[in-house]
Amino acid sequence: MLTLFHHPLFASCRFVRIVLGEYGEDVSLIEERPWARRKEFLALNPAGTIPVLLAEGDHPVIGAVPIVEYLDETRGVFHRERRLMAEDPFARAEIRRLMEWFLVKTENEVTKHLVRERALKPLMGGEGAPDAGAIRAARANVRQHLKYVNWLAATRDWLAGPRISYADLAAAAAFSILDYMGEIEWSEFEAARDWYSRIKSRPSFRPLLAERVRGLAPASHYADIDF
């Protein structure tokens, strides 16, 4: 069985978990607090970052994009119509562009700040009170990212084109964390809400909807498919 070192409030980790679910892969989950810098974990990944997948032969694959590329090459290619990567090179480039948007741009402008200030600081110790300025800036950026997703969802069948792809799962990973924390007002973004509802209804998403983070209760609508 595959083993994934992850944290439930890291979008990169959620992304890998959803991909594993889409391909029907069983995985053993180990929750890792990267700020603790455990010696045993650093032996797997000296950078101390997550996610880390222990693949066949307990070989560590490090980072969300390398992990997903590994899964695509070892699992996705055998799923044909269910593969999450396109065959056309320009379509593949668009999927990769949007993966980077949600795993890097949305992370740097929104997700990591809200997660750190609202959820992780109390766990990390010695980090001080939440930074109200960082929270305000991140919340202002949420709206811009939602507007972009709303446009994509309104003009395409799925975010990167006619079929669900890694781009949708990367976006869903990021927005599911914000949704868990009650940071999204979906009523203003109908196309984005309908897209997210489709993602939430997929079997691969059910473990995330059932999961609860210690010390942080989810928004009341978080687990509802129709919200």
Descriptive overview:
With 227 residues, the chain is α+β, with helices and mostly antiparallel strands. It has two domains: 80 residues, 3-Layer(aba) Sandwich (Glutaredoxin); 114 residues, Glutathione S-transferase Yfyf (Class Pi), Chain A, domain 2 (Up-down Bundle). 53% of the residues lie in helices and 7% in strands. It contains eight helices and four strands. A four-stranded mixed sheet has the order 2-1-3-4, with helices on one face. Strand 3 and strand 4 form a beta hairpin. The termini are far apart.
Q: Helix content range of the residues, please?
A: 40-55%
Tell me the number of structural domains.
2
Instruction: Give the distance, in angstroms, between the N- and C-terminal Cα atoms.
Output: 35 Å
Q: Helical region count? A: 8
Category from helices, strands and their pairing? alpha+beta
β-sheet strand percentage: 5-15%
Task: Write down the oligomeric state.
Answer: single chain
Number of strands: 4
CATH structural class of the largest domain: Mainly Alpha
Radius of gyration: 17 Å
Architecture of the largest domain, CATH level 2? Up-down Bundle
CATH fold label of the largest domain: Glutathione S-transferase Yfyf (Class Pi), Chain A, domain 2
- Largest beta-sheet details: 4 strands, mixed
Order of helices and strands: EHEHEEHHHHHH
Please mark out the parts with pLDDT under 50 across 5 or more consecutive residues, or reply none: none
Biggest sheet, strands in spatial order?
Answer: 2-1-3-4
Please, what is the average pLDDT?
A: 95
What's the shape? globular
